[in-house]
Amino acid sequence: MSIRTVNTQPFNDQKPGTSGLRKAVTVFQQPHYLENFTQSIFNSLEDLQGKTLVLGGDGRYYNRQAIQTILKMAAANSVGRILVGLKGILSTPAASAIIRKNQAYGGIILSASHNPGGINGDFGIKYNISNGGPAPEKVTEAIFAHTKTITQYQILESADINLDHVGSFKLGTMDIEVIDSVIPYLELMESLFDFNLIRNLLSKGDFSICIDSLHAVTGPYAKAIFEGKLGAKTGTVINEVPLEDFGGGHPDPNLVYAKSLVDILFADNAPDFGAASDGDGDRNMILGRNFFVNPSDSLAVITANAHLVKGYKNGLTGVARSMPTSGAVDRVAEKLGINFFETPTGWKFFGNLLDADQATICGEESFGTSSNHIREKDGLWAVLFWLNIVAVRGESVEQIVKSHWQEYGRNFYSRHDYEEVATEGANELVNHIRSQFDTLKGKQFGNYTVNYVDDFSYTDPIDGSVTTNQGIRIIFTDKSRIIFRLSGTGTKGATLRVYLESYEPDVTKQDLDTQKALKELINIAEEIAQIKKFTNREIPTVIT
Ligand code: G16
């Protein structure tokens, strides 16, 4: 086996976004495209020689080919050992757990998360550091810098490795261990939650659940946990076989893309509890019978009830949420007297807070919640957290959320997405709002008066790094908010996200339909941003 040095030229589009490099599969299939980015990762890492890396992905199309290429490149770049998921599969939370458990130097995760897969879908690659979390901006910037100047990459000439069986192999001087991550992940969950209590709840027969894996990576994990360990009846986990194209679906657990699960939970005789996760298993959607739990509320309820759950009963040091996430959790943090942080969108911004033990639980409006047990968001963790709360309280999901609103008030919250609009129009929209920054302050729109407008920026309290332009905030005097932000995970055109939030402390007014409650703010957003004109769309693609 010999190491081959291949001459190459830079691609000009390899800047990582909110979560790694995500592009159409056809982009990744261009000669040298994956290799350039992989070599740039290796070039940006100091002292890689002899170190251990973790490698795996969500099983989407191109996962297996990419893994073989990365293994051969890792061997050529003197990596000491690679732990690779069986069949190339590692959910993102499992990858984070495996990096931490094995004190690996880092990991490469292959996923485009909630984006569709298949030959015409998307693919992605990201690097996670030794704490198990997504590389912070200074690392992704360094990788990007290398992609702009790369001239060569190294690859070992060898046959492919068989990833279909657990076992150990040698590739050149590098050790490869093919591992099944389901068991260590299950054990980690068992250390945090009261499995006996949840098993009692699920086996009594009067509490039924439905878990939708959307033909993505969580199928094997969910089967082993819910049907295997927790005694839920066979068939509880649906769409459980991971498919390279996710069965043609869009593996995003929200009201639109997980509609078949929503239909089940909103039908007559619906199960008591439903949940879905995304392509790589880090997102979650929680449903009760005929009831949708907004992700921002989910974060608040989890935080408020953490003392009921084994792994968290000794208290939380703090909680962190991304800026566009609703302020529901803020009031819980205040009541508990714990730290509270507001970060930019992107799980990578929670890493320092978790490492410094400033925060225990983190969450985002984009269906992501997790804790300091790993450094990624964790879909099945959130599902188990909810089941543990339900099992302790003996109340329905709806009762738990409504009593939370009663105590803390309700944050009406919605996100309107305009997906794959023309980039030029989206940029013009942003500039159009920015041009009103000076005139909007103090301006009255119906019942709302603008308190201030800004472009959100964040100074990391641990390392002092500053991140700017993280979304335009229009904040009203009653703390209602409209936020405009362009997605950093899309691969076609631009995706505009409009986040809308108002607060209702009056219990008699909390049952209103969310879109109706936010109607006035929705109209103000249109008036300020002229969304229809700039996006050329009459209505959002997705409303959550
Ligand atoms: C990624 C990040 C999340 C972020 C989400 C949405 O999620 O890990 O932290 O909230 O993107 O990003 P955007 O609004 O820029 O599309 P995932 O599940 O795609 O990895």
Question: What does this protein structure show overall?
Answer:
The protein has 544 residues and is of the alpha/beta class. It folds into 3 domains: 2-180, Alpha-D-Glucose-1,6-Bisphosphate, subunit A, domain 3 (Alpha-D-Glucose-1,6-Bisphosphate, Chain A, domain 3), CATH 3.40.120; 185-408, Alpha-D-Glucose-1,6-Bisphosphate, Chain A, domain 3 (3-Layer(aba) Sandwich); 410-543, 2-Layer Sandwich (TATA-Binding Protein). Helix content is 33%, strand content 26%. The protein has 19 helices and 27 strands. The strands form 6 sheets. A 7-stranded mixed sheet has the order 2-6-5-3-4-9-8, sandwiched between helices. A 7-stranded antiparallel sheet has the order 20-21-24-25-26-19-27. Strands 11-10-12-13-14 form a 5-stranded mixed sheet, sandwiched between helices. Helix 10 (295-305) packs parallel to helix 11 (328-336). The longest helix is centred in the C-terminal third of the chain and has 15 residues, at 379-393. It is globular. The mean pLDDT is 96. It binds 1,6-di-O-phosphono-alpha-D-glucopyranose. Residues 18-19, 113-114, 278, 282-283, 345-347, 364, 366, 368, 487-489, 497 line the site of 1,6-di-O-phosphono-alpha-D-glucopyranose.
